Amino acid sequence: MKKIVELQAVTKNYGSRKALHNINLNLEAGKIIGLLGSNGSGKSTLMKLAAGLIQPTSGTIRICGEPIGIGTKAVTSFMPDQPVTESWMRVKDALRFFSDFYKDFDQEKAGSMLDFLKLDRNDRISSLSKGMNERLQLTLAMSRQAKLYLLDEPIGGVDPVARGKILDAIVKFYNEDSCVLISTHLITDIERIFDEVLFIQNGEVSLRQDVESIRSKHGKSVDELFREVFSE
Ligand SMILES: Nc1ncnc2c1ncn2[C@@H]1O[C@H](COP(=O)(O)OP(=O)(O)OP(=O)(O)O)[C@@H](O)[C@H]1O
């Protein structure tokens, strides 16, 4: 299986605060992976490092075999936990903006996703509810033909019914040559789409397992295992 992400001995400190410590990790294509951990455990830091938005304090990161740089940013699509669009835009302007900015932006895929997620191209972004805005941000992120999708809390603001719709969209529109890394606290809602999960605790990966074996070997859901491992 093709390696998409490789982290070797990656440590990230913010001043004297340690966010990640000596992470060694390979993530392969064809997987949707859950990045799970309590508040402040280092999930967003890991995503920002892979997206090339911040630099590690030590260690090396490669995406599709290349060190972080222009080449890796071209194949990495990051949906941060804050919207990346301007409020004056309409939905269609956001699509045009992404299409101008990213060579790999697939307008046709974006159009299908908008329809699937029931977004109107003429709506002003400022008039969208938080949940509708999340649908738009997800459409923008998933419509790139990337190798690595980093989705930071993609369903935090949406109601339980809409969550199902968004998860269905991720599964439907993701391509098998890529890897999707999703951070979330809403494990029960989202675990059905994960192939694997990574538990991150105090800046270290404490567990990595495929979801099927959590169910068959441990007889537990991911949420149950998470609560057990992270009980305070
Ligand atoms: N820009 C920053 N400056 C200083 N410390 C930071 C910065 N960003 C994150 N941290 C610290 O690094 C650690 C990991 O933070 P991070 O945001 O990666 O956690 P997280 O798992 O995404 O948390 P949450 O689930 O609350 O979003 C925390 O102790 C946090 O306070």
From TrEMBL:
One of its GO terms (molecular function) is ATP binding. PANTHER family: ABC TRANSPORTER, ATP-BINDING PROTEIN, SKFA PEPTIDE EXPORT ATP-BINDING PROTEIN SKFE. PROSITE patterns: ABC_TRANSPORTER_2 (PS50893). This is ABC-2 type transport system ATP-binding protein. Transmembrane segments: none annotated. Pfam families: ABC_tran (PF00005). It comes from Paenibacillus algorifonticola. InterPro entries: AAA+_ATPase (IPR003593), ABC_transporter-like_ATP-bd (IPR003439), P-loop_NTPase (IPR027417).
